What we know:
The protein is α+β, with helices and mostly antiparallel strands. It has a single domain (1-129), classed as q2cbj1_9rhob like domain (Jelly Rolls, Sandwich). It has one helix at residues 113-125; strands at residues 15-21, 32-34, 59-62, 67-69, 80-86. The strands form 2 sheets. It has a 3-stranded antiparallel β-sheet, with no helix packed on it. Strands 2-4 form a two-stranded antiparallel sheet. The radius of gyration is 21 Å and the shape is extended. 2-oxoglutaric acid is lined by residues 32, 67-69, 80.
Amino acid sequence: xxxxxxxxxxxxxxxxxxxxxxxxxxxxxxxxxxxxxxxxxxxxxxxxxxxxxxxxxxxxxxxxxxxxxxxxxxxxxxxxxxxxxxxxxxxxxxxxxxxxxxxxxxxxxxxxxxxxxxxxxxxxxxxxx
Length: 129
Ligand SMILES: O=C(O)CCC(=O)C(=O)O
């Protein structure tokens, strides 16, 4: 069934993005563009928004909201911290499939509490007789 943009037929949010620009986002360095309401109706025909955000501010939005980074016509890099919080059942295999990240190293094994304590003690007391 096509929900046709009727919010009564749209699933509740399953993931949110938190964008924290690490530099001020301006029209010159490529702000993020959003289409309001597109999380409910992907084909929403409404004007997009490109908010200018201050470095360190946070913009939280439904993962389904249509968005994209615009071109950076400046000379400086435009870093943006990007965190996704999702319900445990959900994985974005469309944007983050295994092929795209196949060259990433294996995730490091997390040290146990005992190993971390031992390492800390070695660091602190290691040089002492
Ligand atoms: O860089 C941005 O402003 C947005 C990036 C983005 O939407 C993405 O990587 O999915």
